Amino acid sequence: MNIIRTVRNNWKKSLFATAIGAWGLKYADQRWRDWNLMKMYCTEAKKYGDLMLKSTNRPKRVVVILNPAANKGKGRALYERNVAPILNLAGMEVALHVTQSEGQAKRIMMETVEKADAIIVAGGDGTLSEVVTGIMKRADEPTFSSIPICIVPLGQTNTLARTLYLPSVHNTVQFIAEMTLSSVSGGLKHVDALNVKGGDDKSVYAVSNVSLGLFSDSEIRKKRNWYFGPLKDRLCYVITAVRHWKNELKFSNIIFHYTVPCQGCNRCKELPKKIEYRWWNIFIRPQHKVLEKDYTDVVNEQCGVVKDTNVNFCHLDAFANRKANSLDVKLTSNDITKSDFIKKGWKRISKNPEDTNDTATISNNDDGNRNDIYLKKDGNDTDDDKDIHLNVASLTMNLPNDIADRKFIIDSEQFELMTPLTLQILPNKFKFYYARGNHVIAPESKIFKMPKFRNA
């Protein structure tokens, strides 16, 4: 009775103590489950390490590009706690490069790294973009770009990792550990690259998406509204609609120069060379390159032909269509209302623009080659949407000259907007590791429940 009377007489303190105790219990439960998850992943990695010790092959040499500033400065701690133990127990020879400034990851890939069996990018989308750009600017790019890449998602934005791997995993430790272990036991998947080139011929390479316009302006402005806390993600679109809704920020009468996608023809594919025989070929078979397919008789008159079209838009999203090896471009109409702009912006928070894309219908000829892009307005009866979808191989746009103070987004990173701006798809340019499945099933949120291995 004394306890009940004390609680009743001091209900504010009791409520505060209960809240603190509940938070502490939840925190302890999460740390306990994360510890057990890492224990399971380390056990799994040790199996591969033991096999490596028994074999006569040299250890797998991996180059790790670590961004310690990722995830608000937590990058190094996350790496040392969740990544390094798995790599060491798996018997890998690790060459660690820690970046200290912006752009250093690109310079490391261009100048420092020489040989590797795999490249591990420990950071976010910005670090990945720098690594990819550094690889593409190497003198030995054709051979070096064939080295598999593993993404360890330590950043706040991990667009490609979420797109390619485990979109249903929400546990940070499991996500990081699963991606790290994929460099040991995962499969390989080809990924397209985007070449973004400005008027000064400077190129930036991306693997996720390119975004420019009103939505990008709002998302860039998001960091300035940090004092709104979790509401800043939604308020940034409201602020744009109320304070920054100007016709000058929209793009009118923009000329697009584009080429249509091609699935392969005698114009764009390497053709077999005629073998010249010599007398010594009676004893030694002549060496020649074996091609996957002979495109000599495949004709596509539209391949590489530059066409023009005139469009109006307030926002552009471009990303690789990995199924069709082409560039999907989504244009938001200039006629969008403020309420529709806010509604679409809020949808972008919970959904990647790539997930909501409706691929345009393509006209095909008998050889399966695309003849032209198809511009369409969405015919959804439930949503009065006037978005235009384009499907191209390359796109060059001449933007207005008064864009010096505007920026656009490449793989979640900000860049100064350039004109003319060229986007080009590079099909199947890189190979990325992906997880074949969860090695450990994370437990439900129950106090101190141990995880179990996935059933075979």
From TrEMBL:
It comes from Helobdella robusta. One of its GO terms (cellular component) is mitochondrial intermembrane space. Residues 57-200 form the DAGKc domain. GO terms for biological process: ceramide biosynthetic process; glycerolipid metabolic process; sphingosine biosynthetic process. This is DAGKc domain-containing protein. GO terms for molecular function: acylglycerol kinase activity; ATP binding; ATP-dependent diacylglycerol kinase activity; ceramide kinase activity.
